[in-house]
Amino acid sequence: MAFGDYPKEYNPSVHGPYDPARFYGKPDTPFGQVKISEIGSWLARRNKTPSAFMGAVSRAWWRWQHKYVQPKRVGMAPFFQLLVANMAFFYAINYGKIKHHRNYKYH
Amino acid sequence: MIINRILRLSNSLFHRDSLFLFAHTQTCPTRKRPVCPSSGSTSSDTPGGGTAIKRRAEPGKVRLGMFPDDWFTFFHSKTGVSGPYILGILLTNYMFSKEIYVMEHEYYAGLSIFVIIVGITKNFGKDIGKVLDSEIDALENELNQGIKNQLNLYETVIKDCQEMQKQAKGQQMLMDAKKENVSMQLEAVYRERLMQAYNAVKGRLEYHSKRTRVLNRIHQKWMLEWILDNVRKSITPDFEKQALNRAIEDLSAMAGRA
Question: Which of A56, B70, B101, B186 has the most CB within a 10 Å radius?
Answer without folding.
Answer: B101
